[in-house]
Amino acid sequence: MTSNIRYKSRIPVKTEDSIEEKQYVGFATLPNQVHRKSVKKGFDFTLMVAGESGMGKSTLVNSLFLTDLYKDRKLLNAEERINQTVEIIKHTVDIEEKGVKLKLTIVDTPGFGDAVNNNECWKPITDYIDQQFEQYFRDESGLNRKNIQDNRVHCCLYFIPPFGHGLRPVDVEFMKALHEKVNIIPLIAKADCLTPNEIKKLKDRIREEIDKFGIKVYQFPECDSDEDEEFKQLDKELKECTPFAVIGSNTVVEARGQRVRGRLYPWGIVEVENQSHCDFVKLRNMLIRSHMHDLKDVTCDVHYENYRAQCIQEMTSKLAQDNRMESPIPILPLSTPDVDTEKLIKMKDEELKRMQEMLNKMQQQMHDKEQ
Amino acid sequence: KKFTDMINEDKRTLELSGHVGFDSLPDQLVSKASAQGFCFNILCVGETGIGKSTLMNTLFNTTFENEEASHYEQKVELRPHTYELQESNVNLKLTVVHTVGFGDQINKEQSYKPILEYIDAQFEKFLEEELKIKRSLFNYHDTRIHICLYFIAPNGHSLKSLDLVTMKKLDSKVNIIPVIAKADTVSRNELEKLKIKVMSELVSNGVQIYQFPTEDEAVAEINSSMNTLLPFAVVGSVDDVKVGNKMVKGRLYPWGSVEVENEKHCDFVKLREMLLRVNMEDLREQTHARHYELYRRCKLEEMGFKDTGTDSQSFSLQQTYEAKRKEFLVELQRKEEEMRQMFVNKVKETEAELKEKEKELHERFEQLKRMHQEEKKNLEEKRRELEEEMNAFNRRKVAAETLMGQALQGCSQQPFKKDKDKKK
After folding, report:
1. Do A135 and A105 touch, CB atoms closer than 8 A?
2. Considering B21, B107, B247, B346, which has the largest number of Cβ atoms within 10 A of its Cβ?
3. How far apart are CA B149 and CA B175, in angstroms?
4. What pTM does this model have?
5. Does this complex have an ipTM over 0.85?
6. Does A252 touch chain B (CB under 8 A)?
7. pLDDT tens sequence for chain B (424 residues)
8. What residues have CB less than 8 Å from B303, skipping those under 6 apart?
9. Domain of life here (chain B) (predicted)?
């Protein structure tokens, strides 16, 4: 009996096995191969932080990456900041987690919005972003493309002060100057200044104003329709929570029996990683754990491509004007009509017209004379 | 000897042998003042949304009407509101002035100007009243700003550049008390560092903020200790939160409740104490005796008044005024003359120009007339020529026609001849 059963139960397995063996090609291991190669290659990410001084930008970056990026920082006092211009400072660190290496670059913008006259204070920032695009463009079009360094800015965290009623003119102007060059993620800084009701009101107001002024902030990609309900729900919550209200902290405090990053007040302890206290966890998950690569993709596919197309258009129209044969970058010449031949054609046209008129006149004269 | 010199001689102190009763003078003064009512004017300077209206509501335990300001004002404006308050038979006419749109513009270089102009305007009004011939200072509604509360945003590191520039412009015009607004976002040791940093920046830039007076022994101690606690870190709220089994004014957070009147949480109580309960009268005095007097002196000096002349004799205001007036009238006359002269010159010039133009026009007219005549002559000639040609042509035509007519006749008469010829 048992042998029969065994024999019976084996036959289907065996046939299935062989069927599978015949049908199994093996490219299902591609994801694993990609994973292995990428771990070996390592990743890079460039994050820009912008906002007035004292908004907690460096504290937040330290909290996000659980490290101390800003050592020996010199903070200017009020008098020195009256006429301050915006600087661009880069900090690059190599961090590793479970064998995955990340080269993280933080681009800091000290001085933004600090002077008394902040006209066009975002210009150094847009210039920097354009420079990185230009550099990449040249590298990409060069002959030796083995070691291209990608210094393009993948994401810009913009810190909105929580003390006002919404966006201020400088916030609007900054975001409008940058929204087509970089992914902007607006954040409400120092959110421990607002009660939950106030946070909701402020978020609604900011979302409204972003729509009103036509600012294109980074949009989370739609999740696939075949994801499970839980994931979709989380995704929906995430999108409704923007802009994130964040709190950062460099210090560890004791709360509810655990040691957590937080801020100690006489009336309570704010925990940075407590979701009911602030949206820090959401930001971290979004920025690092799920959408880091999407941010890079959007930068490459959208912002960089826009820059490149614009650049090429400018160059070809310039070339046509200057009549130069060589160009620094190999590009297909557009069929723009030569300016000289155009002039000639115009002249000939005019001559023709004049002759036509004269003929008409003469005919008329003859006609008149006959009569 | 002059009468004035005699009065300043040798004051003697005498002992009283009984109770006279003039120790009631302060009480008389107080009851008179209370009957009249007091006047107090607060200016709140701070960026939009920083909590100025909320703090006023909290301080005076009432709700002053105030609409939420927008961030998109083009310029800074000042909005004064006056209220009548009463507490235990004491009437207070309170004017609260808020800055609207402060700190919102991208270019804030002119932001301090409207504030300065407002303060000066109130001084000017008072000065005008003082200089009137028929004046009523006793029931004049004094709108001069007695205290300016400057709201510093708690950004954690130090003052903003705008704050420094503005306070420097205002410190000689008004009593300034800086406060750190929304202080429930600053933890305790951050707060200590921030207070020290703010005060050191103010001191190193020579900004003179209001010091609570320490001459009066009754309040010297508390005032001097409060002076060290500046700037006050305040939190404002008109909402109640439950703490224990009481309802107190505060803000409810997921991690705890901030109580506005708890001195361990913020300095609101200290501010109220200093501002309203202890030093209100001193603020009014300082405004009148120091800031207003400075304004008045500068203004009068501008106008040309002096206290002492070149020979060290004091002028009377009246004489100086008369002299100024005469000077002014003379100046006015001179200007009138000048303008009249200019007018006459201008008229002459324009007349001359017009005459020129007229002449030119005349000449042109003559020229055109001549041309016209010539052309007419030419055309006449051409006409004549054409007519001659036409006549000649007609004659030729007639001649040709007759010829043709003859030829035709000839043809029709001899058709056979032709045929015959052909046949031949």
Report:
1. no
2. B107
3. 9
4. 0.74
5. no
6. no
7. 566 666 666 777 778 888 888 888 888 888 888 888 888 999 999 999 999 999 999 999 888 877 888 888 888 999 999 999 888 888 889 999 999 999 999 999 999 999 999 999 999 999 988 888 888 877 788 899 999 999 999 987 888 999 999 999 999 999 999 999 999 999 888 899 999 999 999 999 999 999 998 888 888 888 999 999 989 999 999 888 888 888 999 999 999 999 999 999 999 999 998 888 888 889 999 999 999 999 999 988 887 766 655 444 455 667 777 888 888 899 999 999 999 999 999 999 999 999 999 999 999 999 999 999 999 999 999 999 999 999 999 999 999 989 888 888 877 665 555 555 555 4
8. B324
9. Eukaryota
Are residues B105 and A168 in contact, defined by beta-carbon separation less than 8 angstroms? no
Alpha-carbon span B341 to B34, nearest angstrom: 62
- Nearest-angstrom CA–CA distance, B171 and B145: 12
What the block records as the tokens of A242 is: 């923007």
Q: What angle do CA B106, B107, B113 make, to 5 degrees?
A: 125
In chain A, residues with a C-beta closer than 8 Å to the C-beta of B100 are: none
**Surface of B (50-79) touching A: CB under 8 A:** 50-51, 68-72
CA distance B201 to chain A (A): 7
Q: Residue A116 burial (CB < 10 Å; 0-12/13-18/19+)? A: buried
3-state secondary structure (DSSP) of residue A240: helix
For testing the chain B interface, which of A265, A279, A371 should be mutated: the one with the most B CBs within 10 Å?
Answer: A265
Select the residue of A54, A116, A167 nearest B155 (Cβ to Cβ). Answer: A54
Residues in chain A with CB shorter than 8 Å from the CB of B157 are 53-54, 75
